[in-house]
Amino acid sequence: MLVRPSRVAVVLLLIIATILIRRSSDSCYENPGNPSSIPVKQLYLNDYGRQHDQKARAEIVEPSLKAAPKVAAEKAIVMGRLARDDVDWVAQDLPDWERYIYTVDNDNSTLHTAVNKGKEAMPYLTFIIDNYQNLPKTMAFLHSHRGGWPEAWHNDAPGYMAKNMLDKLKIDYVQRNGYANLRCIHNPGCPGEMQMFRQPPQGELEVEGYMLEVWQRFFNSTAPPHIIGTPCCAQFAVSRDQVLKRPLEDYVHFRRWLLETELIDDISGRIMEYLWHIIFGKEPVYCPGVEECSCQVFGRCDEYTYKAPPTQSSDTRLIEDSDRRRSQEVFQGQK
Question: Which interval of the chain is the signal sequence (predicted)?
Answer without folding.
Answer: 1-21
